[in-house]
């Protein structure tokens, strides 16, 4: 058993957590470069939290230029045990309306050109990604979101697109045919990198609009911002509720030790440069 330390990645419209006790902004260096912003640390109900605004305060970093490796490294470096990512998405499912929340269980990766692994020169690892989110953490998030007043849909498949442009109408219709429920620009490679860092990951999506497949026509930023404001309030309440909901003792998760069966490079040939945080447990053993 161990204590929980929750990493929260705040998406569009969520740039701080007002419920934190003794909040402090902290700048952390990583061997992967600069993360999106400083992190906000504090406690809620005795549980430590580390909050990182994914796009930076003021929304300065576009999705295709996010330094996701640095973002995940910071959370791991500061001792987070689990990560809840919160993201704004468009809906590809009529039942998932603007203002609703969606707890994602599957992700289709259509991004391109984004660094998607910590393991590069002389260090090969193949982590399993059949189930990209942690079911235990997701179940806790579901209870917290409903308690916070969210209209919640689950399960759901998320289509991760490159951005920063929105989809064409043909693409939007195609993704619906694939069985996708929501579409966004940030879940990948975020979920992959969290898995490589042995961090159980859950994804709570805030629906801001119907994508352009819908009768309403093009996606409109003004409409998105209007819905986003209400969604952000519920998201903040969800995080506060989650912190009070997690058990006092954190039982081990299989994801905590996923690298034990993922590393393939022989030990004598491994290059662990830049991996001091990601591989801390393995290196310590």
Description of the structure:
By secondary structure, the chain is an alpha/beta fold. Helix content is 25%, strand content 22%. Strands 1, 2, 3, 4, 5, 6, 7, 8, 9, 10 and 11 form an eleven-stranded mixed sheet that branches. α2 (135-147) packs across α5 (221-245). The longest helix has 25 residues, at 221-245. The model has no long low-confidence stretch (mean pLDDT 94).
Task: Write a brief caption for the model.
The protein is built from six helices and eleven strands. The protein has 285 residues and is α/β, with parallel strands linked by helices.
Question: Keywords, please?
Answer:
285 residues; Rossmann fold; alpha/beta
Helix- and strand-based class? Answer: alpha/beta
Counting H and I runs of at least 4 residues, what is the number of helices? Answer: 6
The overall average pLDDT, rounded, is 94
Shape from CA axes? globular
Note the topology.
Elements: E1 5-10, E2 21-26, E3 39-44, E4 47-53, H1 68-77, E5 82-91, E6 101-104, E7 106-109, H2 135-147, E8 152-153, E9 157-160, H3 169-177, E10 182-184, H4 187-196, E11 201-210, H5 221-245, H6 280-284
Parallel strand pairs: 1-4, 1-5, 5-11, 6-8, 7-9, 9-10
Antiparallel strand pairs: 2-3, 3-4, 5-10, 6-11
């Amino acid at each position: 058993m161990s204590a929980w330390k929750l990493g929260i990645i705040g998406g569009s419209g969520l740039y701080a957590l007002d419920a934190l006790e003794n909040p402090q902004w902290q700048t952390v260096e990583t061997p992967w470069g600069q993360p999106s912003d400083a992190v906000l640390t504090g406690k809620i109900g005795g549980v430590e939290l580390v909050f990182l605004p994914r796009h930076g305060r003021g929304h300065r970093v576009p999705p295709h230029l996010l330094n996701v490796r640095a973002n995940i490294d910071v959370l791991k470096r500061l001792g987070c045990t689990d990560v809840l990512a919160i993201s704004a998405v468009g809906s590809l499912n009529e039942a998932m309306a603007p203002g609703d929340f969606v707890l994602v269980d599957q992700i289709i990766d259509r991004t391109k050109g984004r660094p998607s692994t910590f393991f590069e020169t002389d260090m090969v690892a193949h982590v399993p990604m059949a189930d990209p989110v942690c079911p235990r953490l997701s179940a806790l998030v579901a209870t917290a979101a409903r308690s916070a007043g969210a209209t919640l849909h689950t399960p759901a498949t998320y289509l991760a697109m490159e951005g920063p442009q929105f989809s064409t109408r043909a693409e939007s219709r195609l993704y619906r045919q694939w069985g996708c429920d929501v579409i966004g620009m940030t879940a990948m490679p975020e979920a992959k990198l969290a898995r490589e860092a042995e961090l159980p990951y859950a994804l709570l999506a805030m629906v801001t609009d119907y994508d352009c497949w819908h009768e309403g026509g093009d996606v409109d930023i003004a409409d998105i911002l209007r819905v986003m404001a209400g969604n952000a309030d519920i998201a903040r309440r969800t995080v506060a509720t989650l912190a009070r909901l997690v058990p006092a003792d954190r039982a081990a998760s299989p994801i905590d030790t996923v690298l034990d069966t993922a590393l393939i490079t022989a030990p004598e040939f491994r290059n662990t440069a830049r991996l001091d945080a990601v591989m801390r447990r393995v290196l310590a053993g």
